[in-house]
Amino acid sequence: MKNKSNFLMLSALLGGLLFNFLFWEERLALNLLIYSVYLLMITFVNPEVIKSSKLKIYGLAHLSAAVLVVINNSDLTLASYYISMLLFIGIAHNQQIRTVFVAILAAFLQLATVPFNAIKNLTEVRIGNFNLKPFFKLLKYVLIPFVIVTVFTCLYSAASTVFAHYVELVLNSIANSLGDVINFFFKDLNFGRVAFFCFGLLVTSGILLTFFDKSLQNAELKCKEQLLRVRRKINQRTAWFEFLQIFTGGLLYRKLALKTEYIIGLISFGSLNLLLLFLNAIDITTLWFGYKPSGNFSSELHQGTNSLIFSIVMAMFVITYFFRGNLNFFSKSKTLRFLAFAWMIQNCILIISVLIRDGYYIEFHGLTHKRIGVLVFAILCIIGLATVYIKVAKQKTLFYLFKTNGNIWFILLLVFSTINWDVLIVKYNLNHTDSVSIDPDYLISLSEKTLPLLDKNRAKINQSATNESETRTRIYANPQDILMNKLDQRIDFFKERYEKASWVSWNLQDWNTAEYFGLNGK
Question: Transmembrane ranges (predicted)?
Answer without folding.
Answer: 7-24, 30-50, 62-91, 97-118, 138-159, 194-212, 262-291, 303-323, 335-356, 372-390, 410-430
